[in-house]
Here is the input.
Amino acid sequence: MSELKSNIPDGPLAQKWTKHKNDINLVNPANKRNIDVIVVGTGLAGGSAAATLAELGYNVKTFCYQDSPRRAHSIAAQGGINAAKNYQGDGDSNYRLFYDTIKGGDYRSREANVYRLAEVSSNIIDQCVAQGVPFAREYGGLLDNRSFGGVLVSRTFYAKGQTGQQLLLGAYSAMNRQINRGKIQPFNRHEMLDLVLVDGKARGIIARDLVTGAIERHSAHAVVLASGGYGNVFFLSTNAMGSNVMAAWRAHRRGAYFANPCYTQIHPTCIPVSGDHQSKLTLMSESLRNDGRIWVPAKKEDAEAIRAGKLKPTEIKEEDRDYYLERRYPAFGNLVPRDVASRAAKERCDAGFGVNKTGEAVYLDFKSAIIRYGKEEALINGNQNPTDQEVYDYGKKVVENKYGNLFQMYEKIVDEDPYKTPMMIYPAVHYTMGGLWVDYNLQTTIPGCYAAGEANFSDHGANRLGASALMQGLADGYFVLPYTIGDYLSKDIRTGKIPTDSPEFDQAEKDVRDRMTKLMSGKGTHSVDYYHKKLGKIMWNKCGMSRNAKELQEAMDEIAELRKDFWENVKVPGTMDSKNAELEKAGRVADFLELGELFAKDALTRNESCGGHFREEYQTPEGEALRDDENFSFVSAWEYNENPREAKLHKEELVFENIEVKTRSYK
Here is the structure.
């Protein structure tokens, strides 16, 4: 089995990436025409990688389970994308972005990768502007910035609340250019079901046409997995309902180590759960915390009256409101990192101050921002003595210009006007920092198999800062992978076309068909969703915002029992060789049932709290995360075992030479 070799270049931190690019092998343009690359996933990471690799001359095949790459979950990213351009002149720099990201991840990420991310961040903005991405601009025409959690500068570029969509359209247009040139061959409505290894190297995939049900073989000299995260292991999350772990888990089963599965992000600003009928949750962008103030009633009796419908939030006087983030973290206020804000909201609700019928919601209030902006706009417009209504109208227009589509979305879902009544929010599963282990080149422990974006573990440690997901996805796809994959492919210029009629492809296809047959053979009466919901409740209740040893062990036992029942009793209607959405879901839930147990095992073995991993046994007297740097300053990389609790742990020790490791403080 592969060893953990991070392949971090020697030399000073700020020179590592430049030196590495100068030292690695290249493939000349004539030879690139003879090399094939498969890219699984066409969101920001996969779409940008596919477009760039094809532009360089490689022959690219793309695979996505949606009907179009435009529907990748990247489209749901709302708030913005970070870059250290220092347009605001507020002290930002590559080092500051690097420092904030390392600190935000609670010192559990690899220094070299994070610095490279900061270093290439500015190039991303230039690339996207050149593609026509309509970033917001200031009055003078310069690109505008806003702040996100965990930082003291404004470095987030945005397009209202549609940043992910606009960036994805940019990558999609770049892909389309290469499709028209014949350099990208798209396979939409296809799902990767297995990774094919030949002589220990990734040489192709087995995919299923989701329209016809046909099983297909596709070969390549390298395979890039950019298939997103695994947040849907919780069933209820902000992820698209189709988001899954299958591509990454297939690679894991074939030998790619899975790193830090327990590092999962709970986003603090989501529309609260309204009942058991829901199949997904909706995110309210973190950008709203720039201008929205988070609060609960300071008096428990007021919270009880609101829950009973006897009191409205607008009737709570200012002095009777607890702006708890501003109170607990005065330096950062409402812009503390997501893990800190989420735990603080849970603490207030657990203490009885929650404000919706379930008691699991807090307020996000824009009244102060509307008044502040309204007074500014009145002065700009020469109105020295505006009425209260004029102030409101001016201020509402400013807020609408910045966040309008988010407010519309909230009103459609909740049926309340957030300009007049504070939004209700509560934490929900949003992003997964864990993923396939990759080295500095983004290569997994399987030679020729690469992972990009949320599918890998590399940049965010135990907690991702807001607006860094889009940054990492595009950095990996546009500016990292196209360099590093060439170093590997330079050894394949004489290999020739990879045949698909080899024993390895035969066996991989047989494995896929056998697994599908087994899924179809369940004789029970329970649907796939029945098992997915049960798994989700176990995960949320025992592996969610806080964990403890007793409940993690219970979760492992319960998931193992649920998995056994699933394989014996799941009912999948239809046939294998036709369109069958239930069969698709069954394969994904089968993977989640393995991942869930490994998730719990990873959390159980990490006897510390860090970032999004909060063990109740390890916290400061103030209730903050308590790391154990002496014993747990490492990446947990798990080797696959059919019985997840028997998975073998490999450790990548984290060495910090350029940053002081200390307890995070946002006070």
Summary: The chain is about 40% helix and 15% strand.
